[in-house]
Q: What sequence folds into this?
DNA sequence: CATATGTCCTGAGAGC
DNA sequence: TGCTCTCAGGACATAT
């Protein structure tokens, strides 16, 4: 999503509007009048990412934080539908505005000053990023926990950027059972989890994400991803494991979230 | 402090 | 066919 938005770096914001929407409004902070006053005329100097959020850095040093959650999209293309368009950011000299579209409306858009950013998205709130931390940092972040590894991988305060789908995929390739307790993992197992964390995320980025059955995820140009065709366990309950070719994929629930795994490839030991 | 649970939202799909 | 019900999961507030 972030990479697809890079073409708007250098653009000047001309206006911001909240298109009329029959659905319940999402969180936009501050309210639109103040939001507009602080962004119109500013230049987009960078598009960054912190954990799962898109960070649009402005020449004022303020940042627009897009938090898409499951169904939110940040687009520089026509959205998937006319409904559920939540915010439009017009750019000088650009045909296409920057859009925030969110079918379920659990996402948000926030304009943060550097001081607000430091508090709300500081290291207390967002842990080291999954794409850049070392195996030692991963073990340091989660190794002392008594929780099961799979829910621990989703704790954004300790490790940023891993979602439910990818947690299952990573553990399958690492050969680690999702119910394995963090404090009972060996250093070799942490190294394998770290290795597959990078591998899965980099591959998923290469394929532009996973567009599941409901068709929600699209890249910044409103194109489908392709990684769903490479899933080894996610949403494959009852199907044959692609790794061992023997066992079938099982589904369990951990802290209210689905987990998929192969009972043969992923040992509890 | 460390974890777990309830909540928000909409539309797809299941089951009748 | 059309209705109701369940479920999907990311982050945060609240509970244990």
A:
């Amino acid at each position: 999503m972030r990479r697809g938005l890079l073409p708007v770096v250098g653009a000047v914001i001309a206006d911001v509007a909240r298109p009329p929407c029959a659905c319940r409004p999402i969180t936009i902070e501050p309210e639109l009048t103040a939001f507009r006053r602080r962004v119109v005329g500013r230049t987009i100097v960078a598009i960054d990412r912190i954990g799962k959020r898109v960070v649009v850095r402005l020449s004022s040093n303020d940042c627009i934080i897009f938090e898409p959650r499951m169904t939110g999209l940040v687009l520089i293309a026509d959205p998937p539908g006319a409904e559920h368009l939540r915010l439009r950011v017009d750019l000088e000299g650009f045909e296409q505005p920057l859009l925030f579209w969110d079918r379920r409306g659990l996402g948000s858009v926030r304009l943060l000053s550097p001081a607000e950013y430091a508090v709300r998205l500081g290291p207390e709130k967002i842990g080291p990023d999954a794409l850049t931390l070392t195996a030692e940092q991963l073990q340091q972040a989660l190794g002392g926990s008594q929780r099961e590894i799979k829910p621990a991988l989703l704790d954004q305060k300790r490790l940023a950027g891993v979602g439910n789908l990818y947690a299952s995929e990573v553990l399958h390739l690492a050969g680690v059972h999702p119910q394995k307790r963090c404090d009972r993992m060996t250093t070799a197992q942490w190294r394998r989890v770290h290795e597959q964390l990078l591998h899965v995320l980099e591959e998923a980025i290469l394929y532009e994400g996973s567009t599941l059955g409901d068709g929600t995820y699209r890249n910044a140009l409103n194109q489908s991803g392709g990684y769903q065709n490479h899933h080894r366990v996610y949403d494959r309950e009852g199907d044959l494991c692609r790794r061992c070719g023997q066992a079938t994929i099982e589904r369990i629930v951990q802290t209210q979230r689905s987990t998929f795994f192969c009972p043969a490839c992923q040992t509890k030991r």
In short: Residues 23-24, 26, 69-71, 84, 102-106, 145-147, 151, 155, 213-214, 255-256 of chain A lie near DNA strand B (CB under 10 Å from a C1'). Chain A has six helices and eleven strands.
